[in-house]
Design goal:
Length: 390
Amino acid sequence: MPEAVIVSAVRTAIGTTRKGTLADTTAEELSTAVLAASVERSGLDPQLLDDVIWAESLYGGGAVGRFALAGMGLEHVPGVAVNRHCAGSLTTVGMAAASIRAGMDRAIIAGGVQSGSLSPITHRRVPGTVDEIVSWFPPTHPDSADAPNRDMSITVGWNTAQEAGLTRSDMDAWALRSHQRAVEAIDAGLFVDEIVPVKALQKDGSYLDFSVDEHPRRDTSMEKLAGLKVLHPEIEGFSITAGNASGSNDAAAGLTLVSDELAASEGLTRLATVKAWASTATDPRRTGMAPLDGIPKVLERAGLSVADIAVWEINEAFASVPVAACKLLGIDEDKVNIHGSGCSLGHPISASGARMLTTLVNDLRRLGGGYGVATMCAGGGMSGAVLIHV
């Protein structure tokens, strides 16, 4: 059985939705930049590319990856859109690895894109009416007061904090460290090799070369975080704030996966090997706890334990998620999100999983190799996880 190896890992810098540098850059443009760089940096002959599996969420349908390929002149390459909400691009990597290991495909680019700034606003007719039209947001699960579709601060952040017994101080401290680590990584140039610059349209009609993550806050502190108002003061003890939650962000990220046989025959550099992947689901009220099911599952599939993992990427949709995982699964906090995550770098939904893996590949290579896991919760009570080896 062939192995699925990663031969390129690329992302854009992460912008802040609606207020940031990528506010007027479309999902198609972000995808094109990453897909073109993925092919170029991999060294793969584009004619050998079999497919693109591209995650998108809240973007109104279509297949953004295929759109980008057609515009790049790669008319022979199909593309498919995947939606597993936040875990979408982790899922694309698992799907690509599965097809390669099954011998069906030899070269696939997997990843995803999020343009929250330009996501379409959808409407639909009210059932039972003739022409009453209302704004509509696709739900992830049946709505309830303790797991509202449109308020993840309750469904993910608060419910996780309650179940895991976390304090606001626990979460604020994690968020502060996330910002500090992200800023340190940016200043040290650790993200430079994984980022492809984007020509970003600005309001005055000019274009700006965007290549540095803009969401981390250099001036945050425990005092500033403690001073933020909770998002639901009417709920007794509520501890979720904008400071211990992820940002709303724009970005794209992708990884080129090929069979080890193709990598050898084409002389491609193997950056990492995809060893295992997993998806899980639970009660939507426990969405933020879903990775605590996904982590043991992906470790079991790889025949490994928590102690075997050198670096973890556990998405900070809310700080409560990685704090809960470390507390309840015995994960060393010093090995988790070592260069920031959702609270600091931001959370470009469908691109986040591929962003995490891209950073994970580079971190493991800098550290001399080892096993790494990227995992996250996803709307509706789901999780995704991918385990790699460098």
